[in-house]
Write a structure and sequence with these properties.
By secondary structure, the protein is α/β, with parallel strands linked by helices. The chain has 19 helices and eleven strands. Helices cover 47% and strands 13% of the residues. Bound molecules: pyridoxal-5'-phosphate.
């Protein structure tokens, strides 16, 4: 972008200057709408979420057989949610403020099979593709016991097809592991920032890893281009896929069922705030869509991004969405937060969710590392850096009286509130790597 264009953008949207300065910013969107109205932008509805949930149920007998670690949940890939009171106290001290309400952690970091939030969307899209192929070939009916897919016959059938995806790491892990297990030929196009251990793990699972010296957008473009020339190849499009989005959205109803079981009330007098780390937007966008369908106006979703990769806040705040990338305003898109190093936001998610997301904030990599070691020392929970992005959310919300007033929250409501940090990854980080993260956070 030319200097005069950037200057014009800053004068119409002053926060862009703070983003360029790599400052930690918080922005609450004045354009949010009542849920029923905002949901009309999405183009998908409850019926679509129910359809995705039903598909995951059909596949559960297969998942249970193919991944024995899911036996306890009978093939349903779901994570625990738990309160983190010691961390909450530590955060109050760290930020020098009182933190009303109760802080919880959603542990997608420890989802089975691939240890990140991508085990929702990525795996779902592979399953949907496998089901479509098998049904069309007359090998499968919706009423069947899908455990029959765990057989040499089906592996042989799927081996005639291939799947490709571009990834910074975690999406590749989910799609690679799931596709290879079913029998597909699978290629993961990985950006330069992807971790070596993730590449090794994929190769050990029989996945073809293609490496790039560039960032995520180039890896995606190349993957898409290669797939175009092969009619048996299915390209999973992280930027625009409705299927991926729906896979994530199932989390909303599932969280509600978990909170109901745990006796956690969410209603007008007990609002729920959810803090979601955001990369291209599909994961947090899909989860937020599911939460809005489940809880309506009583849930408030806030997206968190690294100061070096604030693509979604930039796109939504300026209204330019996928038409602007952080590089256009001189931001380098270099961050240690796996999954969040994305320069250009999903246009689909930006438009679909723009009236449903209460706010956005950015945080420094250094903050993620320090929170990583703080969570380890206070709660004994270990996450990867990106998964800590949601942790400061409670303090950001409670230190913005302008937002709280505009929304009309009373102090009684805030005292009753539930704050949920969505931990998006870290369950599969090798011990040596985790030790290095912890050391960095303590230093
Ligand atoms: C992918 C990812 C996210 C964000 O998901 P997007 O769909 O890219 O927005 C957050 N945290 C982790 C650990 C991820 O891997």
């Amino acid at each position: 972008m030319q200097q005069d264009k950037i200057a014009a953008l800053i004068s119409s949207h002053p926060l862009v200057q703070n983003l360029i300065n790599l400052e930690e910013v918080t922005w609450f969107n004045p354009g949010i709408a009542p849920t029923a109205e905002g949901l009309q932008d999405v183009g998908l509805g409850k019926k679509d979420i129910d359809d995705a949930a039903a598909r995951l149920k059909r596949f559960a007998p297969y998942i249970e057989k193919a991944f024995p670690e899911t036996e306890s949940s009978h093939g349903i890939i779901e994570s625990k949610v738990r309160p983190i009171p010691n961390m909450q106290a530590a955060l109050a001290k760290r930020y020098g403020m009182e933190l009303a309400g109760k802080l919880w952690l959603k542990q997608d970091s420890h989802l089975p099979i691939s240890g990140s939030i991508k085990a929702r969307g990525g795996i779902y899209e592979v399953l949907k593709h496998a089901e479509d192929l098998a049904i069309e070939a007359g090998l499968l009916k919706y009423e069947d016991d899908y455990s029959k897919l765990f057989s040499p016959e089906f592996r042989d059938f799927f081996s005639k097809y291939s799947i490709a995806v571009g990834s910074t790491g975690n999406l590749g892990l989910s799609i690679g592991i799931m596709s290879a297990k079913l029998g597909f030929k699978v290629s993961v196009h990985m950006s330069a920032d992807a971790r070596e251990w993730k590449k090794q793990k994929l190769r050990a699972n029989g996945v073809n890893v293609v490496e790039y010296q560039t960032d995520y957008s180039v890896a995606v473009a190349n993957g898409r281009e290669q797939a175009k020339h092969d009619p048996t190849c299915f390209f999973i499009d992280d930027e625009n896929s409705r299927t991926l989005f729906l896979g994530y959205s199932v989390a909303g109803g599932r969280l509600k069922a978990q909170f109901d079981d745990l006796g956690v009330t969410v209603d007008k007098d007990h609002p729920l705030f959810v803090y979601l780390p955001c990369g291209v937007g599909g994961g947090p966008g899909g989860v937020a869509f599911g939460l809005k369908e489940a809880y309506g106006d009583n849930v408030h979703c806030i997206f968190a991004e690294p100061t070096h990769a604030p693509c979604m806040i930039l796109g939504v705040y300026t209204g330019l969405h996928e038409k602007i990338a952080v590089q256009d305003i001189g931001i380098d898109n270099l961050t240690a937060a796996d999954g969040l190093a994305v320069g250009r936001p999903s246009g689909f998610v930006g438009h679909a969710m723009q009236r449903l997301i209460d706010g956005y904030y950015t945080l420094q990599d250094k903050e993620m590392y320090q929170l990583l070691s703080l969570l380890d020392s206070t709660e004994g929970i270990r996450l990867e850096p990106s998964a800590l992005a949601g942790m400061p959310g409670i303090a950001r919300v409670l230190s913005h009286p302008d937002y709280l007033q505009r929304m009309g929250f009373t102090s009684a409501q805030l005292a009753n509130a539930t704050h949920l940090a969505w931990a998006t990854g870290g369950g599969m980080v090798p011990p040596a790597e985790m030790e290095a993260y912890l050391a960095k956070g303590r230093a």
